[in-house]
Amino acid sequence: MNRVDDWRRRLAGARVLAVAAPLLAAVAISAYAWEPDPASDGGSAGGVPWTATAGAAMTQLAAQAARPCSPADLGVTVGAAGAYRGSATQELILTNRAQDACFIPGAPSTTLLFDDGGQQVTAPGQFAATRIDFQPGQSAVLLVGAPGTCSSADPSRSKVATRMALGLPVGGSIQVQGVYLDVQCGQSSVVLLAASDAPAAATGPQSALTGSISAPASAARGQVYRYTVTLANPTDQDIPLSPCPSYSQSLSQPAGDGSTGSSGTWLLNCAAAGAIPAHGRVTFEMQLSVPDTMVAGPAKLFWDLEVPGGLAVGSMVTVQ
Amino acid sequence: MRALLRRPLVAAIAVLLMAASGALQATPVEALPGGGGVTIGKGFDACTAPSTSTMNAWWSGTPWTWIGVYIGGNSRACSQPNLTSSWLNTNYSTGWRFEFLWVGPQAPCTSFANRISYNTSTAYDQGVNNALSVYNALVNLGIGNNALGTPVIYDMEAFNTGSSSCLAAVRSFVNGFVHQMHVAPAQVAGYYGSSCASAVDAMATLSNVPNHINGADWDGNPSTSAISCVASNHWTQHQRLKQYRGGHNETWSGVTLNIDSNCANGPLAPTATNWNNTACL
Questions:
Q1: Per residue in A168-207, pLDDT tens?
Q2: Cβ pair B76:A298 closer than 8 A
Q3: Which residues, 6+ apart, have CB-to-CB distance to B151 below 8 Å?
Q4: What ipTM was estimated for this complex?
Q5: Domain ranges for chain B
Q6: Contact (Cβ atoms closer than 8 angstroms) between residue B66 and residue B263
Q7: Quick one: fold of B35-280?
Q8: What is the pTM (predicted TM-score) of this model?
Q9: Helix (H) and strand (E) counts for chain A?
Q10: Which chain A residue lies closest to B41 (C-alpha atoms)?
Q11: Chain B residue closest to A7 (CA)?
């Protein structure tokens, strides 16, 4: 079972609680009457009251490129010769220099070139089918390696590749100079192929919000846990809470290969706050239910605004 | 004595240079408090420190509580575009703890590009110099309190432990490294490697014994009590980490990383947390 699915399944019950708890807590919330606080920039002493309105998490669908990369698309930067997972390695950074997205269906076919004219084809290892979708400007790291140790290893037996040729399925190759990979201990292979983050998605004014979390140090099992999140606007313009953004919150504890806890996605109380004033801040009351199934000890409290590049804040909490 | 004096001298020169350039005004905000504490819980390491957004995706609702970060050394395999004071501070605020890894020269009987000398005296000095570089890297990363008490692990990849001259060179290197790490402001010196093929247990009898270890033993058992080739009576006082699974992909919150899986029952930066993960004991 996919671990994310497992986490979601574990939380399914807790989410029922999370939905029910606000209703149960409504009486308690009513005690937090929100009134404008002239000493602050739109917040209140207790903060904008929490409301139980379900929100929606951002979808993070990885953009799939429509065409394969050609050698002309990819720039290659030679990184360090290093040591990783038992292999001597050579780092290469591949970057999409094109104006549109492209992909490679797996590790490029890599040939090591030696000064004596010899060649060695590198095995793709576990990365033969690791597809990388490159947005314009996006990079990926390619580590080409060879075993770092063998009983006969000796500097006098070095067999060092100083150039590489990277072949792509569409044809053609990228010639790379200035590498260093000693294959005296065995066959070369791809040790790692991993994309960096895609360039940030288009952001709106709400992405500029900064902020902080203020949370009591302990949370009681079976109770409603209350804390606050303060959104701050560092810009010169008011930031309207329209469209009203969602946020996600969770309180979780590691458990085996997964975790246990409570999470949910809600809408901010935008009707009450309206906007975050320029160079001002507004504090929002938050709450979540602490499942009985959590154990006494530390837990991860996490809150993030569901807008591209949105504020994310966390804190450690002790469950009692 | 030369080594003892080197660090204050380096620091004094750095301060003078910074003052002369006006750089003191730009001193970064402290990234982390200096120091460390025993953490009991699961962590992962990745060749490149992930972006903060990925770290966030891997925090909530996951078993992971700490990350191994390659902070430097001339054999570090991957560049680190994300590793800054701000990155450390932000992720620490979220709750992450850190295993700092240093990948300097490797055993002389290997094919790595940067190697330790077979000459044990030279190897010792190389260890000392790498410890000094560790200190400078920590300060440059904005670790507070002069990085006092901050745990850092030296990454020594597998080598032919049957070669007595090679093993002697590695032991001498580690001896020098640990010695210098313990010079005030002392850090906490660890040793990482293949639990058998990096001769982890052979470091238990050095005059300067590493404070803690991380044994790579990809047997799938997270228990730090069970590390192949490491005697059960060595590093018993919350001094063990174990890398129990090697490179594989995992996806959390829709974000995939290629990681190694680890358990800690030992010191991490900057503070202790007991996640009640008995599987790590």
A1: 989 999 999 999 999 999 999 999 999 998 877 778 999 9
A2: no
A3: B36, B99, B100, B187, B188, B189, B190, B211, B212, B266, B267, B268, B269
A4: 0.90
A5: 35-280
A6: no
A7: TIM Barrel (3.20.20)
A8: 0.88
A9: 2, 20
A10: A254
A11: B61
